[in-house]
Amino acid sequence: MGFWSKTFTWWNGDTWGTKLFTWMRGDEVGRDDFGNVYYQSKKEPRRRWVIYPGNNDGSRVPPEWQAWLRGTIEELPGEALPPVRKWQKTPEPNATGTMAAFRPDGALGSGKARPASTGDYQPWIPE
User: Fold this and answer.
1) Cα–Cα distance list, 13 to 6, 7, 50, 75 (Å)
2) pTM for this entry
3) Is the pLDDT of residue 42 over 90?
4) How far apart are CA 22 and CA 77, in angstroms?
5) If 0-12 CB within 10 Å is exposed, 13-18 middle and 19+ buried, where does residue 87 land?
6) Under the phi-then-psi rule, with left for phi > 0, alpha for psi from -120 to 50, and beta for the rest, what region is 35?
7) Element (H, E) at 31
8) CA distance 72 to 78
9) Contact, 55 vs 11, CB < 8 A?
10) What angle do CA 39, 42, 47 make, to 5 degrees?
11) What is the pLDDT of residue 117?
12) pLDDT on residue 38
């Protein structure tokens, strides 16, 4: 990533302004498995933010950290929430707009034809 794109783009992690603001006014409180780093304000602990390791995408923040960021829980997720159960799935990022997005048969880009109608549909015809 080049100097200029890192300086002026907010969608590739954090800009120099965000780095400076975070360094001066933020305390790091934790990290998650995706590499996101979570901060809270030194003066106002209820002011919280996250810095992403790559593209900024809120769906990459796990639910427990979302709860902390929004103030639903006051303590950090490891302290406030019960341990993860074996039946719980790990959250996945939103795939909308990517090649991994779901495309039903007949949609552009799916490469498949829409299935033929079964004949049980009767359209409404006004009298």
Assistant:
1) 8, 10, 10, 25
2) 0.64
3) yes
4) 21
5) exposed
6) left
7) strand 26-31
8) 14
9) yes
10) 55
11) 76
12) 94
Q: Which residues contact 90 (CB under 8 A, 6 or more apart)?
A: none
* Residue linked to tokens 């954090």: 14
Annotate 39-55 with DSSP letters as a single string. EEESS-TT-EEEE-SSB
Q: Where are the domains of the chain?
A: 3-75
Q: What is the pLDDT of residues 52-73, one digit of tens each?
A: 887 777 788 888 999 999 999 9
Sequential DSSP letters for 72-96: S-SS-HHHHSPPPPTTPPPP----T
Rounded alpha-carbon distances, angstroms, from residue 38 to 4, 21, 23, 58: 25, 14, 12, 13
